[in-house]
Target: Dihydroorotate dehydrogenase
Amino acid sequence: MSIMIVGADNLGSIENNVRKLGFDQITHLPGRKKSKFRNFNIPGEVDVVLVMTDYINHAVMKKVKRAAKAKDLNVIYARRSWAAIYKKLQRKRIVN
Model:
């Protein structure tokens, strides 16, 4: 499985924790620079999009949401804490 993480300047231990859950391909886009999102597209191999809500602005969030909806992908909105991320992944039944 592959995941795209949008937001947060650095992932810290989140990247390792996500790998342990079975995501072998991780794409990370920091959410602070608006210029990176002008021509925003989600790569074709992405299965899940994770948005770190405390490190992203509303305009970028709308672009990510629109792009994910067009590709019919699961989008998870969570704070940058592993407990919050894991709980949201469980709710969407992406992990056990």
Notes: The chain has one domain: 2-91. The first strand starts at residue 2 and ends at 6.
